[in-house]
Design a protein that fits this description.
acyl-phosphate glycerol-3-phosphate acyltransferase activity, mainly alpha, phospholipid metabolism, transmembrane helix, membrane, 202 residues, EC 2.3.1.275
Length: 202
């Protein structure tokens, strides 16, 4: 039990690493105070350009991948089902991004880290969600629309591809948290005030 608690706490700490700030603060920009005020890849891209947005996205995604890599190393020492351990690790990694201990339990919206963990746990289902994401962004011109649709449909994709039920449950609750984190985006979308991805710097 102690190993499991340690693993989940470590996953949360890894997820809490604020790559948006690591990328932006050395350049004199604080994404928590500018743009959409969200410490995430899309806001960094708007403030500093696509290159820095991509770097932030990769950092936020890979911290979830790294958390799962550590989980695989712990599996033999934890007397619980493999799928439960991996799903819990993924959940806490994304939870760390959403409510970072380094940002007074505030954080980004969790999409990049969710992509990272499910590219490891359920790659085929995640790839389908990524295709949905890009199609939705292309049609709507809004990154938030793509993010909301992709995360909402991820549990269904995982279910249809017969991945373990633990992964379905994990993705379901993460989708709820991600939608809650997008509440301001949803309000702006309904009012026609959301910024399009075309306004991102090159």
């Amino acid at each position: 039990m102690s190993n499991l608690i340690f693993l989940f706490f470590l996953s949360y700490l890894l997820g809490s690493i604020p790559f948006a700030l690591i990328v932006s603060l050395p350049q004199g920009v604080d994404p928590r105070k500018e743009g959409s005020k969200n410490p995430g890849a899309t806001n960094v891209a708007r403030l500093l350009g696509k290159k820095w947005g991509i770097i932030t996205f990769l950092g936020d995604s890979l911290k979830g991948v790294f958390a799962l890599f550590i989980a695989y190393l712990f599996l033999e020492k934890i007397p619980y089902p493999k799928e439960l351990v991996l799903a819990g690790t993924a959940f806490f990694a994304v939870l760390g991004h959403l409510f970072s201990i380094f940002l007074k339990f505030k954080g980004g919206k969790g999409v990049a880290t969710t992509i990272g963990v499910f590219l490891v746990l359920a790659p085929k289902a995640m790839l389908i969600s990524l295709i949905i994401f890009f199609i939705a962004v292309f049609i709507s011109n809004y990154v938030s629309v793509g993010s909301l649709l992709a995360t909402a449909l991820l549990p269904l994709n995982i279910f249809l591809m017969n991945y373990p039920s633990e992964y379905i449950i994990c993705s379901f609750f993460l989708a709820i948290l991600i939608w809650i984190k997008h509440k301001d985006n949803i309000k702006r979308l309904l009012k026609g005030e959301e910024k399009t991805w075309r306004k991102i710097k090159k």
